[in-house]
Specification:
three-stranded antiparallel beta sheet, elongated, alpha/beta, binds flavin-adenine dinucleotide, single chain, 26% helix, five-stranded parallel beta sheet
């Protein structure tokens, strides 16, 4: 939007697979709290496309190359688009564990973030599928929302003595038995089933899952990646390659629509500033 309003010609190439596609309601983005993700996205799309300078192309970008004037992006359909600057707002892909029922519940009752969905599951029987530092961090945040928490490590628990003492103090049990299935109805969890056939009923489960970048084009163009797997950017969303920016989930640990909007807004202004500096 910042670029469109600055009369820069913008082409958005989008394959239409955002990470929150399965979530019934998106929370914690002021003015849109509780709205369906696709409604927020449709409104955003309509607003940016009301500027003549912004065009939308449905498709998957599969490769990119640098040339003297800027960059060229090629789509799966073989189309080629040239641009002076590139902005990657490509997000990340969550890697679902091999647990029956897990992916069907993802974003509905198996959730990643207490800020996004914790309030809706307040005071409910809650599991945390994670281990070590990550599980401890989630437990400490979720404890304020419910006092019924069990950590499910699905393998040997990995906590230090101090962490164990705190978990114990707050009556947070740890179960190490391997998880074999999540029983659910339309994505709403009923039971976690363990490898010894025992079951525990939960209303919600937090899960820390690994991720991969949605697009590898930034890296084939030479952008550096951080140790945690994010595209490396500076305070102005510039990657380590001149002329390439990144924003949203692909370059930030704090995963929220409001943060993606903020970093996108900043990126628009910074890309416009670069173009301005080159022309003025
Ligand atoms: C299950 C779940 C629930 C969530 N719930 C909330 C919530 O309630 N509140 C909240 O604030 N946040 C929530 N989030 C976080 C929020 O959805 C993200 O922070 C936000 O969507 C990030 O926006 P993004 O544009 O960076 O990435 P995405 O929304 O993932 O969008 C990336 C887009 O880039 C496209 N793309 C990727 N690669 C290519 C390519 N090569 N060519 C063309 N297009 C490409 C994708 O198709 C997609 O449309 C949730 C996340 C998850 C996973």
């Amino acid at each position: 939007m910042a670029l469109g309003r600055s009369l820069r010609n913008v082409l958005i190439i989008d394959s239409g697979l955002p990470c929150n596609i399965q979530t019934p309601h998106s929370h914690n983005f002021i003015t849109q709290d509780g709205e369906k993700p696709d409604v927020i996205a449709a409104k955003a799309k309509a607003q940016v496309l009301s500027y003549d300078t912004v065009k939308f192309h449905t498709g998957l970008a599969v490769s990119g190359k640098k040339n003297e004037k800027g960059f060229e992006i090629i789509t799966q359909e073989g189309e080629a688009f040239k641009a002076k600057k590139l902005i990657f707002a490509t997000g990340i892909k969550d890697i679902m564990p091999n647990i029956k029922g897990f992916s069907e519940c993802w974003g509905i009752s198996v959730i990643h973030c207490p800020y996004c969905h914790g309030y809706e599951f307040r005071h409910q029987k809650t599991g945390i599928i994670a281990n070590g530092e990550r599980a401890f961090h989630i437990a400490s945040l979720v404890h304020n929302l419910t006092n019924s928490i069990i950590i499910l490590t699905s393998g040997k628990a990995d906590f230090n003595a101090e962490q164990l003492a705190k978990l114990n103090k707050h009556n947070i049990k740890i179960i190490e038995t391997e998880i074999s299935e999540i029983e659910h109805e339309n994505g709403y969890i009923r039971n976690v089933v363990f490898s010894d056939s025992s079951k525990l009923d939960f209303t919600a489960v937090y899960a820390a899952v690994p991720f991969t970048q949605h697009s590898d084009i930034p890296f084939t163009l030479g952008c550096e990646i951080t140790e945690q797997g994010y595209i490396k950017v500076d305070n102005f969303q510039k990657t380590t390659i001149e002329g390439i920016f990144a924003c949203g989930d692909n370059s930030a640990m704090m995963r929220a629509v409001a943060n993606a909007v903020y970093s996108g807004n900043l990126t628009g202004a910074m890309a416009n500033k670069e173009l301005t500096n080159e022309q003025f």
